[in-house]
Design goal:
The chain contains 5 helices and 2 strands, in the order H-E-H-H-H-E-H. It is mostly helical and about 80 residues long. The relative contact order is 0.23.
């Protein structure tokens, strides 16, 4: 089993509001700032933005689907 699979198994894969997921990665800062930081990490991780777009993420979406959360966790690690 790969390390990514273990990480994903330890994190609950479900739909998350964007700020909700961002707050899990950065609980020490407010939701808006946490989301900006998460978005920056997503853009900086090679291929992640494209993978999320292929998984149906749009700029106006308010939440991530379980598949999108899985892609994020595989790329960035669990919060």
């Amino acid at each position: 089993m790969k390390d990514e699979d273990v990480t994903v198994q330890k994190f609950e894969l479900r739909s998350y509001g964007k700020r909700e997921l961002a707050a899990k990665f950065n609980p020490q800062i407010d939701g808006r700032s946490a989301l900006k930081l998460l978005n920056r990490w997503i853009k900086e991780k090679p291929g992640l933005s494209d993978a999320l777009e292929r998984a149906g993420l749009s700029t106006c979406a308010k939440c991530y689907t379980p598949l999108q959360v899985k892609l994020i966790i595989e790329a960035l690690g669990a919060p």
